[in-house]
Amino acid sequence: MTLPALLREAKRQDVDPTIAQVPYGGGVEEQYLKDFFELPGAPDPHRPYRAIWSNDTPWQTRKFTGGGLQRQRGQRAGRGEVLVQRKPAQTGLSGDIWGLTPTAGADLLAETNKPVRLINLALWTGRDVDTSTIDAAILNAAGISPSADDIDKLDAWFKHEFRPDRGDLVGTIFWDDIPAEYRTVAFAADPVSDETYQQLGVLPPAPTVTDDLSTVIGALESQVAAKGFQLPPGLVGRVLAAWLRGDLVVLVGQPGTGKTLFASLLGGAMEQEFDLDAPLMIPVRADFDEAELIGYERLDGTVHLQDFAREILLDDVPLEARVVIFEEFNLASVETYLSAVLVATQQRERIVRLPNGEVASLPIDTFVIATCNSFRDEPETRTRVSSPTKRRSTTITMPNILGDRYENDPETAVAGVVKTLIDNERDHVEARESAGHASQFDSLRLTALRSVSDFGDFSAEAQHALVSVSNAVLETSSGRSWFTLGILRDVVMALVMSERDAQAELTAVGNAVADKIVHQLRGAHSDAQPLLAASAALPNAEEIGRLIDQTMSGPSDELLPLL
């Protein structure tokens, strides 16, 4: 490493280093490394230099020149062998100057007994040289014809750039022959390929996204909307912009606003659009910790790595994007299980240490999207999220589409989405059936789902009842926050699964009010009164009234949860 770098610098200054010394040091060696040994896609960003001379340490750190090489230079110069070093106190210059002893080649050969062929150095340092463009003057000076073999032209180029024929180097530590077998392989017409660099250990390049951001957002929105999701305007763009600037995305909202569904659909759209691996879904539990996210050491000393470590941290194509979905993000303390990842997102090196002490790196395009419910709404089951975590996150509140629809058009807010809800459910079950994954009871589901297709297929009495009880909730401000499309979907599915006659459908609506809607009630006593009035004509009105009375049985004006 040092010998060619010193020769190159001496040639640049037009000095014979065995006669005079030149300003030289770690900075020159570092530039030499960057020019010829820093390969694109090094597996470890801390070790970017491909040390082709070493099998034990094939990649060297950025500190290589200031560490190992500097020590070796100092030791040899101190013994008066190979290198000559003169300090500023001797020369009056600002830095050290370096040269070679006249017997540097013989000394190195005696020490290492590892001569190096000049053509090997030429093939490596000149791997990107187009031999057809080498200056004719260089070839003429070497006695090489323009029609000579490419390898001879490259040999002439190298000797012109490095001037290795100094002192006793050639014939000792440098051999100046070209083995016959080297001439049996023709030079390629194109530069060194990615495949060749991968044979040397670099990472495979990631596919390039050629579209602009607005086009990418539009394509993802189309895929998500095609699955029947009521997509709030701008949501996909907000998520993608957050990911690109390095944030985690946290979706907050009432149950039923579609947080998990959106995260899954967006992850699936990313998979299809960019040919990625399937999103990694990680359900969080109340006792979730780092051992369950990354892994742990067993009692026998072996290490068990979890999916996140195996598929993300140790991914063999870490330059490609991956989508990771944390479901119910704040059921456990986020910092208990995600602290190592959060720290890595703020580091240039993005290091995460595994249980066995191995160091892994969090890939740049690890796109995390998390769903959670507010600690304020559910203090009994949710944990607070700390300020440092929020600093590393983009928190997006999922809007209640149904509540927004009601505020814009109360008359059609409910009736206008029933068809979409039924179609989505039918498509989902039919997709399972066509893929050969129909469950044991899917035939019952499909029979019911194929008996209706729109709001008008229900009896007039059921239509009126569904709209009345839904609007009774949506007319209150608290109801517009919690009565979501998810809850309406459950009520509509109760209707779908009933017999197709007015009395059965009314009974289904009444049961849905008692079994589903009343248990979601929140707010003041006055927020329950409209629902009580709208349920008066339902077959189980007495049951509904009794349940609502229980929600109002507390000492204050606040409605009590029944569970």
Question: Could you give the topology of this structure?
Answer:
Elements lengths: L1 H11 L9 E2 L2 H11 L12 E2 L8 E2 L4 H14 L4 E4 L1 H4 L5 E4 L3 H9 L3 E2 H8 L10 H6 L8 H13 L11 E2 L18 H6 L13 H14 L8 H10 L3 E5 L6 H16 L5 E4 L6 H4 L1 E3 L5 E3 L1 H7 L8 E6 L6 H12 L5 E3 L5 E3 L4 E7 L14 H5 L1 E5 L3 H8 L6 H20 L7 H8 L10 H15 L2 H6 L2 H12 L5 H16 L11 H6 L6 H11 L12
Parallel strand pairs: 6-7, 8-15, 8-16, 9-12, 12-15
Antiparallel strand pairs: 1-5, 2-3, 4-5, 10-11, 13-14
Notable characteristics:
25 helices, three-stranded antiparallel beta sheet, 563 residues, alpha/beta
Give a brief description.
With 563 residues, this protein is α/β, with parallel strands linked by helices.
How would you sum up this structure, described in words?
The longest helix is centred in the C-terminal third of the chain and has 20 residues, at 415-434. A five-stranded parallel sheet has the order 9-12-15-8-16, sandwiched between helices. Strand 13 (351-353) and strand 14 form a beta hairpin. It is of the alpha/beta class and 563 residues long. The protein is built from 25 helices and 16 strands. Helices cover 45% and strands 10% of the residues.
Structural class: alpha/beta
Poorly predicted runs: none
Biggest pleated-sheet summary: 5 strands, parallel
Q: Overall 3D geometry?
A: elongated
- Percent of residues in helices comes to 40-55%
Give me the Rg, rounded.
Answer: 36 Å
- Across the major sheet, the strand order is 9-12-15-8-16
Question: What fraction strand?
Answer: 5-15%
